[in-house]
Each structure stands twice: as C-alpha cells, then as structure tokens.
Amino acid sequence: MASRIVSFEALQTLLLEYWNTEGFRPLQQEAVEALLEGKDVLLFLPTGGGKSLCFQLPPLCQPHAVTVVVSPLISLAKDQVDAALDRGIDCEVFNSTVSESKKAAIISELCSGILSTKLLYTTPESLALPQLKDALKEAHAACTLRFAIDEAHCISSWGHDFRPAYLSLSSLHTEFPGAPILACTATATKQVKTSIIELLHLKSPVVLESSFNRSNLRYEVRYKDLICDGSDAAAFQDLEAFVKSQAPGTCGIIYAHQRKTCDWLASSLCNVEVDAMAYHAGKDSGQRASIQSQWLEGDVDIVVATIAFGMGVDKADVRWIVHWDAPSSLEAFSQESGRAGRDGLPSLCIMYASKAHFEQMRKLERGERSGSAAGMADMALSACCRRKAVLEHFGEHRGRCNAAEEEACDFCQSPKQVAAAVARLEGAWEHKQAEAAQMEKDGHQLAAGSITDWDTCWES
C-alpha cells in the first residue's frame, strides 16, 4: 500500500505528543520523510543520535501501519519497547521470551489487516519463522508495512558485531515487495556501508550520515604497563581511585572481555565498598534482566560487563565508560564509549591499554577482521589526538580537539606528558621482550596468556 506524504506540521504535532519536543535532531526528519515516501534508507548516526525515533514515528502518521523492528538483542528490544509504551505508542514483541498464546494473538491481529500495533519488535531468528512471516505477508497486503533493521552493521562481516542470522534478512525485498527498509547503525566504515546495501538489496537508498564526533566525550588512555608494577592488581587500585573520585550516584560502565574478569572486578569493587554488579552471558536471562533493570533505574550505579551490554540502551546520564581491556576495533570503541553522555553533558571515556594485550589480539585475528586490532593499537599506543584518530577511521578528516568547542582528550590536554608515557611504554616493552628472548635462550618456556573467552551475549 503506497504511503502518503505527511506535512511538517503534522510531524511536529506527533513529536510534541509522543516525545515532548518540537524539533528533530540532525537527519531524523530526512529519514522519516524518506520512509513515508516509500524509499529505502541507510542511516548512520552516532550512539545517542536518536535512531529509534526515525522508525518509531512513521507508523504513527497513518492508520493501520506497522514497523517491524529487527533487533539483535532481546534486552535491547525490551528497553526500546518499554520506552515506547511509556510514550503511549502501541508495541508488541515477538521472540523466544513471548508465550505461545501471546504470539497467537499477534498473528491473529496481523492477519486481520486491522492493526492497532504500531511497532513489532522481533529478532532475525523469529522473523524467519513461517508463522510470523506468513502473517506479515497478510498484513502487507492490507496495511502499510515497513522494516527497520536496528544495529544493521550486524549483517556485515566488516561490522564488529557480525551475526550470521542477519543474513536471512536479504530476502525481505523479495518477500515483501514495496515495503521500505530502514537500516540504521552507529558503525559507518566504507566497507560496512557497501556491505549493508548489497546484503539487504536496498534499492537506491537514501543514505544519511551524520558526523560521528561526540564533542561532550573526553578520551583518555592509561597504560597498565606503567602503573606501579604493571599488574592487574595495581591497575585495579588505579581504577578504584578513579571510581571513588566520582560523585556518589554517578553512573558508569566498565567493559571487560572475559566473564571471569567481570566477576573479579565487580567483586573487588564491592570489597572496597563500591556498589557494582557483573553482567555477562554466564548469568541466566532473569539475572541479566534484573541487573540491567536495577542499573537503568539507578539502584546500582556501576555495571561491569562484557561487550553486548548497553547496545541500544537509552540511559542518558552515563557519566563515564571504562574499558578494562582495549576493544577489538575502533568501531567497537566508538560504539561502546558512545554510551556515555547521551544527555550531551561532559563525560569521560577511559581505556586501560596494554602492549601485550594488543599483541595477543593481533595474533588471534582472522580473515576480513585482520588489522582491526592494529587500528585500535595505533590510536591507543601513539602520542596522538584520540578524537582525531577515531574520526579519521570513519572517514572524517579534521584537526585535534578544539578545547573551545569540545572536551579535550588526554593528548590535547598534555601532549608532552602523553608523548613521554608512550616513550616509557616502548622502552618497557623492549626490555620485556629482551628478557623473554633471554629466558627462551636459557631454555625456559613462557606461559602464554589467553583472551579467547570474549563474550558477545547474543540472544534469540
């Protein structure tokens, strides 16, 4: 069914009614209008840029219209659904957590052609089920149907969160001819863009891309190798001092690669009277939901988590992000650090970097992702503007931090101090390598560390 174009005044009325605002953020209006005109849209906005409004608003403009939102995480969908329901938008969820009776009710409504539901959240796995797909085809014949692919970089092997189930979405245009697709993500490298368009078979998409600069974020790198004796225990003391320096009630996230590291950090923080909870796939779904809910509601200030936590979570007042382990790519770093300061207020992003850790990551890389760790290492282990390095990775060429307009990174605040730290780091690494070579020469076998227990916590 063809969409009608809605006046700007009508859009403003809906913005005020459902979002309590009269104005769009950058590129939101363009995305909404393109979808209402029946066009495919490829939308790149930084974390916190307001992607969800772009697919939530169009169905509100028309009777019997629904947007099917494909989300990679059940927890992500739950947070968006809860927020939409709070605004008064009719939403439903169709995934593995929903009872069979509820699924049957959703199927019945879709087949009726008379829809009150405006947003239907699902996963790629559930969307592939014949019962849901057949019902959506019935709805498509009688109503206005659109698809929104959230975290669309998951379909691309160049995206840091590649998920094979997303490949099933390549048939959407064939099975639902004329239904526009919005693909949105905060990961916008050239390879990801090309891959999304090709794999989703987007038809002459309207490509909308905002600057990925988050001017309110301050980036800082701390070198584990140079903190006291270079041990994790010494680095933890530094982390403890940082956390305790924050005002009581300040909200933060600590990211680590391994589940056991999350448990250790959370336990260690609690032992020094800092309230923190660990979140990872080793906990059951009920535990994870409870922890996330407590954090969102402010009952717990700090979550120590593996990398999937926080994807799409709309919590505006996260004042700091700590990467206990360096992320595997600049895309991951940008998305995870971007979960801080979504309210626009100054926020801090700290990374604890280790030369040895980067070497381990480099050795573990395979296939198309080879080189991602090198890009991350170049930013973290060099005396350079962190902001400039991150943005250049996404094709934005610019100068160093402008202290008059944005939070200055550690390098731009103290170039000589950072340069001296990098020089000491290189010296310490060369000395360590020389010692290792001598030990091997003497017939000793060094124990190799492992960081293979990375946790993506995908749910279907």
Automatic annotation (TrEMBL):
For this protein, the record's CDD domains field holds: DEXHc_RecQ
Q: What is its EC number?
A: 5.6.2.4
Helicase ATP-binding domain residues are 32-206
State the UniProt keywords alphabetically. Answer: ATP-binding, Helicase, Hydrolase, Nucleotide-binding
Query: Catalyses which reaction?
Result: Couples ATP hydrolysis with the unwinding of duplex DNA by translocating in the 3'-5' direction
Protein's UniProt keywords contain Chloroplast: no
Query: What superkingdom does the record give?
Result: Eukaryota
Class in the EC hierarchy, top level? isomerase
The record's annotation in NCBIfam families points to: recQ_fam
Q: Which PANTHER family does the record cross-reference, listed alphabetically?
A: ATP-DEPENDENT DNA HELICASE Q-LIKE 3 (PTHR13710:SF155), DNA HELICASE RECQ FAMILY MEMBER (PTHR13710)
Q: What family does the database annotate?
A: Belongs to the helicase family. RecQ subfamily.
The protein, known as: DNA 3'-5' helicase
Species whose genome carries this gene: Coccomyxa subellipsoidea
Write the lineage as a comma-separated list: Eukaryota, Viridiplantae, Chlorophyta, core chlorophytes, Trebouxiophyceae
